[in-house]
Amino acid sequence: MIKKVNLPEFEEPPLAEVALSVQFEPLLGLLTPHMGLLWQEFRERFPKLEEKPPLNPIIERLGGHRANQSIPLELFSTPPSPRLWFVDKSERELIQIQQDRFIHNWRKVKGKDEYPRYELRIRKSFFDNLKLFIDFLKKEKLGDLVPNQCEVTYVNHIILEKNDRHKDLSKYFIGWNERYSSSSPLDVEDINLKTRHIIKQKDDFLGRLHLNIDSAINSKDNSMMYVMTLTVRGKPNDTSIEAVMDFIDKGREHIVRHFDSCTTPYAHNIWRKSHVK
């Protein structure tokens, strides 16, 4: 059960994709044949199957300039199993599974697709499907799922208003001085901004919030846009599924609040910020 918190709400958020993920100690016994058996558990709701290269593990640690990588998968004595995508008929939702990762994605396929909301469906889908995966591991005696990182990612496609250009970053984001764009006779061609924020509980390091803002062109109509990606990653308090869900809930809360605080009233009006609930 999700704990109710007061969060900003937008009636028309620019959200394009959400990913909830748990990384765990590698299940080296989870091989490609097991993946085929696992798909049978998901196949009714996720009938499409795609094979992808595995993702390298990543651990957030205090200090340094980037998240520390653990041992790459390709150094194991046996070839790594692939990352499999189980995709639903609409192609809006998918499950990604590999030897050390479980990810649930929702993505916008058509412009009119409405985000089904975290507290109404996304969270429950992640939890139910993760539980199904854990039950499969137990049934096939493939080992226990031991989480070492959790991750929440929100990708926003911020379409610029008709007369706005990429140089008008200050209209959409707090912290960018509009004088920068007007002080040079040269046009701003593209923009890439990155920030990292440490998440602590009292004095204990829990993880980070990563913010990326990139200028882009909408491939559908060549309109200008920003791609704003917010990711919270860190270690749950323990290895239980309850601790995983607690981190996911708090990560999503950090993302929603940060999205609201670093975007402008001009943008909020476009996205129809309604109220706090």
Describe the structure.
The chain is α+β, with helices and mostly antiparallel strands. The protein has one domain (8-276). 25% of the residues lie in helices and 33% in strands. The protein contains six helices and 13 strands. The strands form three sheets. A nine-stranded antiparallel β-sheet has the order 3-6-7-8-2-9-12-11-10, covered by helices on one side. It has a two-stranded antiparallel sheet with strand order 1-13. A two-stranded antiparallel ribbon has the order 4-5.
Instruction: Supply Rg.
Output: 20 Å
Rounded mean pLDDT is 90
Total number of strands: 13
Strand fraction band?
Answer: 25-35%
Helical amount: 10-25%
- Structural class call reads alpha+beta
User: Which sequence of strands runs across the widest sheet?
Assistant: 3-6-7-8-2-9-12-11-10
Tally of alpha and pi helices? 6
- Describe the largest sheet: 9 strands, antiparallel
Span of the ends, CA to CA = 17 Å
Count of discrete structural domains: 1
What's the multimeric state?
single chain
Task: Give the low-confidence spans.
Answer: 68-76
Topology order in helix (H) and strand (E) letters: EEHEEEEEEHEHHEEEHHE
Q: Can you tell me the overall shape?
A: globular
